[in-house]
Amino acid sequence: MRSFRAILAAAAAVAAAGVTFMAVPAKAAQDSSYPDHAIRIVVPYEAGGGTDVIARIFAAQLSTQTKQTVVVENHGGAGGIVGASAVAHASPDGYTVLFTPQGPITIAPNFKRPLSYNPKTDLVPVAMVAEQPIVFAVNAKSPWSDFKSFVAAAKKAPGALNFGSPGVGTEMDLTVDLLQQKTGIEMVHLPFKGGGPAINALLRGDIAMMPVVPSSILPHVKGGNVKLLGTTARNRLAAFPDVPTTKELGVPDVDIRPWWGLFVPKGTPPDVVARLQAATDAVSKDKDYRGRMSKISTDVAFVPSNEFADMLAKQTARWGTVIQTSHIELK
After folding, report:
1. CB of 163 within 8 A of CB of 189?
2. Is the pLDDT of residue 56 over 50?
3. Whole-number Å distance between alpha carbons of 112 and 91
């Protein structure tokens, strides 16, 4: 098992080797007429999921900022790869934009199966727009009152407990893999075709635990059907003040926080990328938008293109280490 220092070392090695994501110059000229017609935002997952919800809140405010229609289109399949590929091969004019979490960007490249696009060279990061922590959820009728009792049960019977996720190799799956590495527990993974089916399995009692973002599980917690054992948030969540952070629970390295960002095809003019980035920055400062995001436990986290590109390179290396250590393979 590699330590978290090894993960950081791998990230540094990747950066030193020149594995970088393209980014728009910080002071690119902004003299184009962009945008002068509707913008299409591609969500690489089905409608109704967490990414779709956040994308539609963002799109509504982007439309206000740009004074143009912003249409959200769901293009799901293969854990986000289908939609990401569609944008990577779209016309590089700034009117087709990918709104995605990190799966198709920093996780997918670490598996041996071929991709029809290269996230580092075929997509230009515009900006990171938001992030959410992960919460570890169990059925309210489960015998575990807290994280400590759950870990104790898992250690007592290695392989007896299972966990569910939206699929093999997804961010949620890898977060539990990292949790297992850091706590010494061993669980069986039950992958589902999306977060919705996994939550339904949790409610039925078919799985012992699942990692999930707060916005997806909040109604079930309020309804008394689910309880939370911990969160990867930096601080306790306002919506769940009694739920401890992984740092408080003694596993600070399990600090994964899913993010969402905007990407455009390579070849998109720098001034167009800069204008889209500026509009995104303006969205992030809007009070109503921030309030709507806060209601679904989502943090507005604007990160400009250059900084976002650096972050992507480091996270790609980190996930590579987790995948290698867990011996995960996708066919």
Report:
1. yes
2. yes
3. 28
Would you give the DSSP letter of residue 294?
H
Tokens standing for residue 203: 């409610």
For 61, counting Cβ atoms within 10 Å of its Cβ (0-12 exposed, 13-18 middle, 19+ buried), the class is buried
The pLDDT tens digits of the residues spanning 239-257 come to: 899 999 999 999 999 988 9
Residue 242 burial by Cβ neighbours in a 10 Å radius (0-12, 13-18, 19+)? exposed
Averaged over 116-120, what is the pLDDT? 96
- Residues facing residue 127 across a β-bridge: 262, 304
Say whether pLDDT at 28 is over 60. no
List Cα–Cα distances, 36 to 10, 66, 68, in angstroms. 43, 9, 7
Q: Is the whole-model pTM more than 0.85?
A: no
Evaluate if residue 216 carries a pLDDT over 90.
no
Kindly write down the DSSP assignment for every residue of 18-75, as one continuous string.
Answer: T-------TT----S---SS-EEEEESS-TTSHHHHHHHHHHHHHHHHHTS-EEEEE-
